[in-house]
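Task card 7
Instruction: Convert sequence to structure tokens.
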Amino acid sequence: MKFLLVFDFDHTIIDENSDTWIVKCAPESKLPSGLRNSYQPGHWTEYMGRVFVYLGDNGVKEDEMKRTMTTIPFTVGMIDLLGFIGKNKELFDCIIVSDSNTVFIDWILKAADFHNVFDEVFTNPAAFSNTGYLTVQHFHAHHCAKCPKNLCKRKVLKEFLDKQLERGVSYTQIVYIGDGGNDLCPVMFLKKNDIAMPRQGYTLEKKISQLAQSLSPVQCSVLVWSSAIDIMYYLKLLIKE
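Output:
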């Protein structure tokens, strides 16, 4: 009996958006309006690439970025939840699927000593160039019309499950924990026995309830959370069963 926990990162594990938090490193903690207005829907990764160039041009170094990123608060109850999962790793496989990047997530998880809770992290690859600028790339290419150009979380989840099956690992239940619009695509992939846990008051919860109103509800069960303690409470019930 093994359960798969799938976490989004921004506004789920942490209580902020890691990509917008980095702007605290910019001169006067803001971006010039030309740069801010250069974002085009579906092309967030390219936009962040320009933000990182701006920071590099303004002499923002890796250690300053790291210091800033590790001050992001975790969502209420999340430290308890991740501690609980860490103690019960024989029952839970745990992955992150996020539109953030490898550098930010790695810094934040390691600073809080949570990197061992997660088996894999699927996010946009990032690295510092030899000139000290942070660079970011698309996670993969896909053909999903619903998702941003750089990442379809359903595709990531499906490929992970296929790979696990090849290793002889299948899951009693998948629990998907997220908040954003890009979490709807993987939630619609979940089966009747699985559970989606959208964060209360965020886009994912609103989109799931819109689907229910238009009589095309998601197949899986839905349990809304406002604190990660709600998630922990559910997982405790799950392992008692």
